[in-house]
Amino acid sequence: MIATVTLNPCLDKHIDVHGLVLYETNRWHRMSKYAGGKGIDVSRAVYEMGFDTIACGLLGGEEGREIETLLTEQGLKYHFTPISQPTRSCFIIYDTKTRRQTNLNAPGPRIAPPELKMFYEDLLRESAASSLIVMSGSVPPGVPSSVYFTLISHTRKLGKQTILDTTGKYLREGLKAKPCLVKPNIREAEELLGRKLETEAEIILAAKEIVRMGAGTAVISMGKKGLIACDGKQVIKASSAYVRVKSTVGAGDSTVAGFAISLRRGDSLEEACRLGVAMGTAAVMTPGTELCHREDVQYWLPRIKIRRLA
Predict the structure, then answer these.
(1) Mean pLDDT, to the nearest integer, of 130-136?
(2) Average pLDDT in the 184-212 region?
(3) Of 60, 112, 241, 246, which is least surrounded by CB within 10 A?
(4) Calpha distance 127→5 (Å, rounded)
(5) Active site residues
(6) What's the pLDDT at 288?
(7) How are beta strands 227-230 and 217-221 bridged, if at all?
(8) Once rounded to an integer, what is the mean pLDDT over residues 268-288?
(9) CA distances (Å), 33 to each of 11, 50, 55, 62, 289, in order?
């Protein structure tokens, strides 16, 4: 089983408008609600591909109960530690006229130290049957920057494989615990390393440096250009052909889900890159906060271009 951690989940509200006009009254014609948060999205993508998963994290208030209802309707296993403050809501505004998307993300509820301690205990218990844990996303107020370092350190002692997908100081601290894999995008890698990454050669060097910082494998995603992965022994670039983008929401999480499945199966780095890019590509073909569909992933798998780099 693959467990996921979402410390700052959200109730995603996807709103469609036709011709968004700033500083004016706009009327939306459709709104959909989804259980959101990077770890939850990873679980949704893993489940879509037919693998067992459990989503763990922190939930509170009416929004938290609504997220649990949505996950139950999808058939997803979950265990969330209750918190006193309500879970955040995030808004995704999609202009059907321009096909452009605007995201409004809330910071999240403040987590009390006893709630975080209870979450640690819940995670260790609920992930007992899982051999791999994916830790993803932002961190709500009240949670120390060392949170991912602590989680990875504890779970590695129990023999769990770990994937970390976060940003800034949380990524920097988490790397010290030596996760099996990290997946920053170019902007996040630039923030981590303190320099611009403008060429393929610079991205390769960045991936190698992130491995030296503690990652077993560093995967730097490059949007429509694919990704570059390095495990300290080899560097691989994976990319897909052009696809019409309907929504980029959850594309990175679908890619992480592909790497989680491959790591769980013991696939080669090349096979992991192929599945990760295929799932990310399939995700951008779906509207709103929908993620990849299994039939689309199967279509793209043999069409992913793999190149070994020096």
Answers:
(1) 96
(2) 96
(3) 241
(4) 10
(5) 253
(6) 63
(7) antiparallel
(8) 89
(9) 7, 23, 18, 13, 9
